[in-house]
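ingest -> validate -> predict -> emit
validate: passed (alphabet ok, no gaps, 599 aa)
predict: started
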Amino acid sequence: MKIPARLLFFPVTLASIAVGAAAQEWRHGQPAQAERPVDAYVADLAHVAQAPGSELRGLVERYAQDLAGFERFYTVPDSALKLARYRAFHEAWLARLEALDFERLGVEGRIDWQLLRTHLRYELGLLARAERRNAQMAELLPFADAIARLQENRRQFVAEPPAAAAAALAQLAKDIAAVRETLEGEEPALTPDRIVALRAANRIEGLAKVLKQWFDHYHGYDPEFSWWAREPYQAAGVALEDYRKFLRETIVGVKPGGDEPIVGDPIGADGLTLDLEREMIPYTPEGLIAIAEREFAWCEAEWKQTAREMGFGDDWKAALEKVKQDYVPPGAQPALIAEQAYEAIGFLQQRDLITLPAHAIDTWRMDMMSPARQKVAPFFLGGECILVSFPTDTMAHADKLDSLRANNRHFCRAVTHHELIPGHHLQGWYMDRFNPHRQLFSTPFWVEGWALWWEFHLWNLGFAQSPENKAGMLFWRTHRCARIIFSLNFHLGKWTPEECIDFLVERVGHDRHTATGEVRRSFNGDYSPLYQVAYMMGAIQLRALYAELVASGRMPEKAFHDRIMEGGPMPIELVRARLTDTKLPRDFRFAWKFAGEKP
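emit:
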């Protein structure tokens, strides 16, 4: 799609449209924000007032606030005291929840009861996981308890005598030196796994921050403390930082100044089982991989058909390469994304597929992604503010070309509506206004599944207007299949990060730099282990629910989409219960085989 010349200088264009015609062609019928009547932003108050509520909303909000108070108080990462207090807190909440009169609850209340009970059980499982990991790191962090004691005593207003504080700091430096000796030399006494060493290095970073908070509380306010503790604190701080660097560089293999190596932290089969229970997914990891392979086969068949339409026979990689070369010139990317965003909005409105509030349409924003962040996220990120990837003038020539290829017109077209409307921005708008207490139960199967469901649905509705558009959508759909396969195999201990990268290059058609960025993002970031699985599986769940309720004629399509948004985030099986007005039994057990029985 050729960008009109008037859009190539986006800031000038925005300045002119504020006082120009209300609906230019590239806005697909939408007025400029400054021209829409402000009263269009006011909600249908009767609809809002009459929306059914949950009897347990206040209870969920109380739990969330109490937990937030704990999180602000217990700041030492996974200390023994913190884990013990959290365990007692969650066990007490679970006992009180079980004692509630469940039978008096309606549909919404029963959903919240099941959500909170599942959440509490999951949190207890995570605490057990944290305790096991603490045990694995104990030999590398023999000083952690001493740092925790200083901060946790301060939190309880128990001051350490200044001379004793100085002695504790001096001993801290000695303990660090002693453990380093066990790791150095030709035949070290300790040979930790890289993954455990990386966990320990990250924990040291957190402990150093805690130690600084403790020191700053007294330093400068208590002259005797400063006299005793300043020098040993500085020595302990240097020792901590040197030890952290030693673990990262010598044990983990991080090269100073280089890109972060992809190590990851696999949780194993037991960890995946716990996480799948939290998401109410009744399949094993192996079953999910089988489902992904089935979806992959569909994508491969569509790729061949699309390649033929583009004149490349069955050579889908040649077709993909042509698409990657179709990018806009420097300076034109913001205009492209804006036009694509309004194109998707117009498509939805013309078909009346979902309620699109004017306030949501007019309040999304755009920023450009930094070169450093593009190493981890080579494509877009989004929500209310879409972060756009495109080369900057500071990038090396090869990096510029890589970024241009990764953010071509057709990849972008499939990403823009995923990130904005009807995807994440619209989700966020609804989450803040309807059942906001359920943000506690947010799950990527609902968040990412919704955005990918729309990629499925728009494909079926003919949103892809050309073979190149199809190729852009197919790239992402194939990628989401691959994410399930490589991430689960990694967490099961079957694949290395390098094998995951190779898989993305060979089976999806990624350039190596984007494949590396995707795997790094999956395993080195703060994404949950099932996050990459959730895109495709959540979309498949919503596809099955659409077939059950809309395609069958039981529910109008617009009502289907509106009710999903108004219900708030939750596992999709509970979305199904809500849309069918099912009063869940107390002993409810997830069992919905949304992808068929075989997997």
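The first helix runs from residue 10 to 17.
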